[in-house]
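yo

u said u wanted the structure for the complex thing, so here. seqs first:
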Amino acid sequence: MAQSVAHKGKHSADHDHGHHDPNELKILGFWFFLISDVILFSVLFATYIVLRQNTAGGPTAEELFEMPGVIAETFILLTSSFTSGLAVLAMNRNQKKQLIGWLIVTALLGAAFIGLEVSEFVNMVNEGATFTTSAFLSAFFTLVGTHGLHVSLGLAWMIGLMIQLGKRGITETTKGKVTVISLYWHFLDVIWIFLLTIVYLMGVM
Amino acid sequence: MLDSIKDFASWFFVTGDPLIYGADVSIVLASAAIIGVLTYFKKWTWLWKNWLTTVDHKKIGIMYILAALLMLFRGGVDALMMRTQIALPDIKFLHPEHYNQVFTTHGTVMILFMAMPLMFGLFNIIVPLQIGARDVAFPFLNALSFWLFFMGAMLFNLSFVIGGSPDAGWTSYPPLAGLMHNPGVGENFYIWGIQISGIGSLATGINFLVTLIKMRAPGMTLMKMPMFSWSVFATCIIIVLAFPILTVTLALLFLDRFGGAHFFTLDLGGNPMMYINLFWMWGHPEVYIVILPAFGIFSEVVATFSRKRLFGYKSMVFAMLVISVLSFFTWLHHFFTMGSGADINAFFAITTMLIAIPTGVKIFNWLFTMYQGRIRFELPMMWTIAFIPCFVVGGMTGVLLSVAPADFQFHNSYFLIAHFHQVLIGGVVFGYFAGLYYWWPKMFGFKLDHTLGKWAFWFWNIGFYVCFMPQYSLGLMGMTRRISEYSWDTGWAPLNFISTIGAFLMGIAFILQVAQIVKSVFKHKKVSNDPWDARTLEWTTASPAPEYNFAVIPRVRAVDDWWETKERRAKGIADDPQPELEPIHMPKNSAIPIIMSVCWFVAGFGFVFGWWWFYVPGLIGVALCMIARSFSYDTDYYIPVDEIKRTEAAIRGSV
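structre next:
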């Protein structure tokens, strides 16, 4: 332990009681969680790909998808990924206000993304394309909705984290939490790129 | 008013079967007895503080094992009821619907609520001790995993007396498991029982991966890690990659049933075969999840009781990792008859056969470890020796099944039933028994009674062969699984009758094991740290280990480090000087895991019946628990040096 602490040189000695840097453990654990989440999305993607032609006489992807909204969602989410990166940079410079500020920007962008997605869903339902219309639509709403649910949970988590940062400032513990949520946020961005390609672009092609 | 209550009760509670009324009475009596005893002896606070809110991996492990043994009893009773019904033609013991429920719960309970928790129990107790760590990476998450498993299992078992049991087989294939053919709540119990405990399993997989990667004692490089820990590592890789598939599959099935989706329905474009593919993409890796730790246990036991270093350490590691990868490429062999075409069937037939190669390597390694060893026939070693021929035969019949054209004959016959019981009992159950006997002294500080253990061993083994060997023949004679009746002119009666006798012999064996545990609890000799003269780090600390496991974290030089240390001591070489004691950092107990799991139980129960006034509060409770955890910063404490000294002195005094 002593060697590894000296080797990394960034953690204080009070961690050296034959145990381990909790942030290091948490971040590795979170990577494994992300791997399992990749599998979760892979299964949903596979299901979507298998079922996407099964429209059962209902509306098809080409008829339903409206690309301008989707493109807007894409840029909003990509920008929010960038701002969450800025938040981490602010944290590394120990600037609490900037950190919280960038997190607020990120959360607002995330909320805008969710708003657009919900309105897209509402429009589709109003056109008669509901969750129960066909296997294609069941798979579509489940896949895109699961991503949306992830983003929404991330938002709630981010708000909780901002309160904790406000109360406790930048400590080892809150640093770990910010790092983990930024990993999560980038991960959702990557998933969205696949959604955009496989669901939307291939849908209207 | 009274009528509507009666009406509700008549479908809410399972009625009309004397067996179930008997179960109702015994559940009420058992619960009353437990509550009565706890209240009479004023043990509620003790139970809450020491067990229900604990984050100590050793106590969590013991709770896992207790729950698993209870579930083994439940699954075993299911098995005996089935064997009774089909012992001879025309036995009117179970109605066909009831028979369907019994084989469904037998399979589900045995795999998910018996094998998995027994495995997690052994992980918990042994892995941190074996790698010289003070706990797992995330002790809080570990407690949460246990309670999620426990509440999931309870929810599943509740279906027995409330609402009705699932009856579409443990694989729960749609369209049979879909709303169209299965409108009752039984399948919902199946989905939510497994879903809730499955989240716990996934968390355990992540937890132990991080533990094994980050928390090994200084000097213990990966290639010096004990073989059981390696097997846990390989298993956890499979868990992390496979369990999300199950989560999604069950979620989609539930969306079909609850939300009117069309993933696996017969109408509006649904595709039931998609479910079957997804189920086995989890299901096949799952059988390797449960067998690999058994391989790890055999490796530890065979080295200890042959007094030899494990033969072919590197090839063992390599074989396990190859198995964990290959396990993801064989799922289609569960349904060669689906009609995927010769090319696809050929691919999966070959990958299935390939798995026999690393498994064969392991068998030879165990045999070579025993070769020229001085073997001691203690209980763990007896189970290991019994395992080898049994598993070899079970594996061989698996290779027969993997031949795709032949499988069209074997598919879903009793030949298959005999095969997978032979690898699951002969491999997994024998392995976990070996592990339980081997590590029992480490858990409780005494060995289990040898004589009763030998009786149980022989009843299990003879019962096993008497029960399952006839089933291979029955399969070839055309008997298919899941039938509850057959006629005399099939000619299946004699073999079925023999098979039932074997099943009851195993039932007697289980009772003997319970007697063995009870007798040993009341009459035993305390044992030392290292009662088996074993080889790895868990035997260097006290039996049972203190809450911090090691007063000083050990430094590791070699594979089988403890054995090497003993050899050095025998040569008169002094141990390295021990460093000074330091305060030990420990996690605090927490009530959140059990409360959150109860909330999941409430939510799951609400989803089963479609009652929003249950699932909305349940989910809110879950969310509140997560927030409470996120906002609590006071989660750990230090054990002062004085207290460690006192504990260590007490341990030395008692042995």
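The two ends of chain A are 56 Å apart (CA to CA). The helical segments of chain A are 2-8, 22-51, 61-64, 67-92, 96-126, 135-168, 172-204.
cya
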